[in-house]
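To assess whether the prediction recovers the assembly geometry, we first specified each molecular entity separately, as shown.
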Amino acid sequence: MTTEETGYNFAYLDEDSKRMIRRAILKAVALPGYQVPFAGREMPMPYGWGTGGIQVTASVIGPDDVLKVIDQGSDDTTNAVSIRSFFAKTAGVATTSRTAEASIIQTRHRIPERPLKSGQIMVYQVPIPEPLRWLEPSEAETRTLHALKEYGLMYVKLYEDISRHGTIASSYDYPVEVFGRHIMSPSPIPRFDNPKLDRSPALHLFGAGREKRIYAIPPYTPARSLDFEDYPFAPQSWSQVCALCGAADSYLDEVVMDDGGQRMFVCSDSDYCASRLEKGGRTQ
Amino acid sequence: MYVAVKGGEKAIDAARRLMDKRRRGAPELPEISLEQIREQLGLAVDRVMAEGSLYAPELAALAVKQAQGDLVEAIFLLRASRAAFPRFGYSLPVDTAAMRVERRISGTWKDLPGGQLLGPTFDYAHRLLDYRLARTQKPEKSVESAESAESAKSAESAEPEAGKPPSTPVPTHAGAAVPTHAAAVPTHAAAVPAHAPTASAAAHAPTSTTTASATPPPADEESLPDCPKAMSVLIEEGLLELEEDDGREPGDITRQPVDFPLDRPERLQNLARSDEGFALALAYSSQRGFGSVHPFVSELRQGAALVEFIPEELGFPVVLGEMEATECETVNQFKGGGETPPVFTRGYGLTFGRNERKALCMAIVDRALRAEELGEEIKGPAQNQEFVFSHSDNVEAAGFVSHIKLPHYVDFQAELSMLRQLRKAKQNDDRGDRI
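The predicted structure of the complete assembly is given in tokenized form:
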């Protein structure tokens, strides 16, 4: 299938590459949280700008899919616009900004506020797939640690955080244990979003293009944010509500209003905010 | 206010258009052609092909033009195109010993079969800005170009002389800056700056006394003397470690996931497409003592090699074409001890096009990366294959480094509230201490 406008195959990648990536995805689904190496291709966007997610999306998308792309929770950030138009052009698929209408949601750094449904696929862009990377730079070493389920390093790090700061000082990319086996990086989502991964009805696929790894959390799979009994995991919370829609349950972006230090807090998830406003939420 | 975070397709389009306008530059100047880039910025084209992992001079020239001379960007463009090309199969191994050499030097032998052939190189040029190049040479026959055409002709007529023993064993660097086809196409030579047309034919003449007298003067490029590998002398004497085909199918880092530790073929594939600056820094660090590889250049050759391919339906090799390449072989410290007598070890570099610096660096880093295999202590980054492999690719590196230009509002917000929370907790603690 070739789209006439571009001269490239449907969704850009050739079918052989897609099949190779789908095999990696199947393996990732079979081994929740395990990082499957795959022979990533160069994409026409720079590494670090979502090439892993783009390859995963290109491999699972079909003509009937409806695609939503967000970056920082918003459909309108430059990179989200760029990736969405890439698939609109190369695959000719329908796109949407509405979480409820999307069958595939490619994201960077956020999970939508609206609960995901069964049948939806979340595709994450992952910069550093290895949760142990900051503790052990060698890939050969970290793969061995995963194989042996030797996660002492990680727990020592969390313990040191507590002894130094009184709390686990990871605010994003907060590691989870998937299906009681692998420790996994949820990609740099804020820890506010971590609970949304646990037993989610959606399929969550993670693509790291530069590091050439794919991993997954299948639907309804436990994903436990790491913690200690006496220091339980807690997501971020705000004393403010969204200044636009009044939501008290969403992740808020802080916007600097003037030189005098005025701040405004608004929903990071632009679709969530807009749909609340449509339904007659608070307006300004 | 909130609108500021919206990029919008219009703004993106405008940014692209502005960049294209900058590419074109002053519209009253003629647009640069791909042929001009390929012919006159050939080393840029070669670097883009080498690191872009695609031998396609026209496409590389297009990439250089489109990237406005940003070679890392051009390499990225070529690499991304390459990824979308269908793959028909693998060529036969390129026989570099049968290369039609344009340049060939050895740092280990004063003279050797095939001779020292300086060829086109900056090596012997004084690095002075040549102000004559600042003037555009007109392709039409102006007085000046007629002169240079004249001198090129005289050089051509002097060609038979060039084959005779020169007065000194090492010839002048004349001809070094002249394209080798200058002698064959005198009109072409007219476009060449006037400073160098002397004896351009010497570029292809054997340069040492002995070989020059032993071989007939080359009438054209086809009749160059055989140029066996400089290494072969050492191999015959058993002084050099033997490298034989073990029959194993080499991996392909562009098609298969990699798994550390990597075999040498995979490491070499990675080095061949690695960033030249990175390879240079690693090679340098190794020579300075962070890994202690300070080799001899047994041979550096540059020229054209045949690429052959066996189509499945034919079952016999057909020549696809000629490919310019640069190859470097180094001889290094001994290995051996115990039962085995000591031998020299080897490093290998091979790149598309004329890429001497890169081929040399590749050979040094290749040897440094063999530390583990040869039982050497790993002291420097150039010896650490995971370090080298994971950071050598400038498409990967440039992408990841530049991605921090993307919005990170969400994570920054997370850090901000974390920091506020920690500071608040600290203040409360301090207050508690005081009470």
